[in-house]
């Protein structure tokens, strides 16, 4: 069975964006050894135009063939003129406000996102599903998440969007990997204990 992997960037104090959802202060850390590692391990998590600028536009997906995101996360790409930010991936967007998909590989889910994710996980295939964000969607899908990959950037926000926008409930995960980089970025991979 395929896994839902919540791969997310956050500040040291656990915020994925400022109070308005902006995480652009973290972009400056995507350089050097950390950028090389991320491009090697998770190339499909970079926007398609960025991969093209690096000469990697034709690189096949390595870990994911589908990305799930909320309307706010999707809007960042739309605002940049990208109706399909991750061109090689099937994009699942949870939205009640969009009435029709702006691009062929973008599927809108208006109701029961957990059920749709369970269907995706049951599909055949060697690649997993990337939960891109945001906080509200992560909260809705918390019980469906099989792995969490946290890219912690050396910044403190003080307040903002938490990793999970949901009520209190304990879910146990086991630490599987830790990677540290010279620029202060720390990447941890956790697997759900079932």
Automatic annotation (TrEMBL):
Organism: Streptomyces lichenis
Protein name per the record: Dihydrofolate reductase family protein
Domain of life (superkingdom): Bacteria
Bacterial bifunctional deaminase-reductase C-terminal domain location: 3-186
Gene3D superfamilies in the record: Dihydrofolate Reductase, subunit A (3.40.430.10)
PANTHER family referenced in this protein's UniProt entry, alphabetically: 2,5-DIAMINO-6-RIBOSYLAMINO-4(3H)-PYRIMIDINONE 5'-PHOSPHATE REDUCTASE, DIHYDROFOLATE REDUCTASE FAMILY PROTEIN (AFU_ORTHOLOGUE AFUA_8G06820)
């Amino acid at each position: 069975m395929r896994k839902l992997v919540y791969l997310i960037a956050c500040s040291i104090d656990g915020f994925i964006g400022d109070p308005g959802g902006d995480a652009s202060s973290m972009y400056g850390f995507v350089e050097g050894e950390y950028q090389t590692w991320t491009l090697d391990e998770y190339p499909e998590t970079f926007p398609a135009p960025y991969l093209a600028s690096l000469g990697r536009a034709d690189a096949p997906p390595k870990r994911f063939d589908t990305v799930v995101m909320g309307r706010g996360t999707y809007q960042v790409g739309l605002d940049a003129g990208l109706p399909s930010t991750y061109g090689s991936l099937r994009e699942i967007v949870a939205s009640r406000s969009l009435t029709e998909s702006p691009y062929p590989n973008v599927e809108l889910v208006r109701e029961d996102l957990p059920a749709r994710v369970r269907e995706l996980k049951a599909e055949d295939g060697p690649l997993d599903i990337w939960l891109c964000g945001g906080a509200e969607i992560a909260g809705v899908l918390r019980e469906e998440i099989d792995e969490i990959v946290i890219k912690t950037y050396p910044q403190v926000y003080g307040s903002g969007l938490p990793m999970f926008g949901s009520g209190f409930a304990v879910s146990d995960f086991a630490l599987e990997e830790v990677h540290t980089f010279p620029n202060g970025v720390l990447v941890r991979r956790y697997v759900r204990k079932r």
